[in-house]
Specification:
six-stranded mixed sheet, iron
């Protein structure tokens, strides 16, 4: 199948997903064949997806990037989620050699010093483990939502990821934060206690702060940088390409 065919396939899937509820979207994707992988950061939207996968016993692999710098609350939530839904969340960690090489070049916390150093850290701790998590996958499910940031405002339900040569599905693209919270409340979904402390978006501990009133959901991520569209490279092709080349 050519790239053009894969793009057309993703566009057709996007149209089908638009008319379904979340359970229907996930069930449709799970039945397409091939390996389907959902990568979770254990954020509130990702917890909604994990709950649906577990509740409906869908044949979707669940993976998380255990970067080595996560909050203790996030690590505890992994085990709590597995127990509640009788699922296995596979952990993918960075290679020690990559961490050592990064520290030798930039210092362990060198990501505060430059965007280049921060991208390099994300590359070692997130991009490389993600590549291993998605090996052999034909579909990658994420918790991206249009309301998370201006950079994600046009997020489709399905798109062809040219960097990774697979179809990327965002089943919560049209959900707002209030709908997410209502689902969590109505269904007893376990969530990270940091959300209640002003952390709507949670990543690595050194790179995440609580947001201030009126700030966008992702304002607390890499808060010392000035670029309002800052990302780690997982969901931005341009940054992923730069990181991969380092």
């Amino acid at each position: 199948m050519t790239v053009i065919d894969r793009i057309a396939e993703a566009e057709a899937l996007n149209d089908k997903l638009a008319g379904l509820d979340l359970a229907g979207r996930l069930s449709l994707v799970a039945g397409l064949g091939g390996r389907v992988v959902f990568t979770t950061s254990l954020g509130i939207e990702d917890q909604v997806i994990s709950a649906e996968i577990g509740t409906h016993r869908l044949p979707i692999d669940i993976a998380t990037l255990e970067t080595g710098r996560l909050f203790a609350e996030t690590l505890s939530l992994i085990e709590e989620t597995e127990a509640q839904y009788d699922i296995h969340i596979q952990r993918f960690t960075p290679e020690k050699a990559d961490i050592d090489a990064y520290a030798a070049k930039y210092g362990l916390n060198g990501f505060y010093e430059s965007v280049e150093a921060r991208h390099a850290c994300c590359g070692v701790r997130k991009l490389k483990p993600l590549a291993r998590a998605l090996e052999g996958a034909t579909i990658w499910i994420t918790g991206l939502r249009r309301g998370q940031s201006a950079n994600r405002a046009e997020t489709p339900f399905a798109e062809y990821d040219a960097e990774r040569h697979l179809v990327k599905v965002n089943p919560l693209a049209d959900w707002d934060l209030e709908a997410i919270k209502a689902f969590v409340s109505d269904n007893g979904v376990p969530v990270n206690p940091l959300h209640a402390r002003g952390y709507p978006s949670i990543g690595c501990e050194p790179c995440t702060r609580a947001i201030k009133p009126g700030e966008p959901e992702r304002a607390g991520r890499w808060w010392w940088e000035q670029d309002e569209k800052r990302e780690c490279g997982l969901h931005v092709a341009e940054e992923a390409a730069v990181i991969a080349a380092q």
